[in-house]
Specification:
The protein is α/β, with parallel strands linked by helices. The chain has two domains: 98 residues, 60s Ribosomal Protein L30, Chain: A (2-Layer Sandwich), CATH 3.30.1330; 156 residues, Alpha/beta knot (3-Layer(aba) Sandwich), CATH 3.40.1280.10. It is 34% helix and 21% strand. The strands form two sheets. A seven-stranded parallel β-sheet has the order 8-7-6-11-9-12-10, sandwiched between helices. Strands 1-4-3-5-2 form a five-stranded mixed β-sheet. Helix 6 packs parallel to helix 7 and helix 6 packs parallel to helix 10.
Length: 261
Amino acid sequence: MLISSLQNPSVKNLVKLNKARERKAQNLFVIEGARELSLALAGGYSLKEVYVCRELFENTDYPDVLDSIDDDIIFDITPQVFKKVSYRTSSDGLIALTQPKPHTLAGISLSDNPFVIILESVEKPGNLGAILRTADAAAVDAVIVCDPQTDIYNPNVIRSSVGGLFTVQTAVCTSQEAMEWLHAHSIAFYAAELEAAEWYQDVDYRGASAVVMGTEADGLTDSWLNNATMRIKIPMRGKLDSLNVSVSTAVLTFEAMRQRG
């Protein structure tokens, strides 16, 4: 079946799902890109519908991604329709309607010596996605998103994570729940703060540990700062006082990985 009309109900619904309230109401989200879809399938995500623009898909680097998908849920669309539903400037012609997973602390499986990234009130989808990409690169145990100000299934999270959302264990909870979980698993947690006394590279991350990152505008709340194992900072040599939160997270994470060998 080829969908060619921009007025098709399925086309209209794909556009609607760019809004967080629609994703929540329908319990669905959209994945764009064959690489991201292949990672979601490997991560056990369930698909409802898949839309393919064959003219674009013929140039994909992941031509086998459709082989494991039931033909009954695959629909062909024209380039004009794909342009309407796509949110990327360049794409390989694949969009999937997908069911989200529960992201609970109870669902996280930890290694014997875990390292975890904690984010408080993350606001920008691009930052969350970049941090998930870092988390995948460093093979951290989990990313815990506390009191989020953005939907983790925002299309820009998926895009900027390059599919890392589907490869990294991710939980969404309150800050209080996260702190109780850290204490229950005997994980030391280090709060990033501009005015901290300790340089990040002088801290020992070789045991079970986590780094806690706040918003770029306000940093961490007192709850995290007052309960942290230690407050840490990154030296700033220039005139600006801070880095982008995703860059800061990468700096701290890879220092921990360096120490751990």
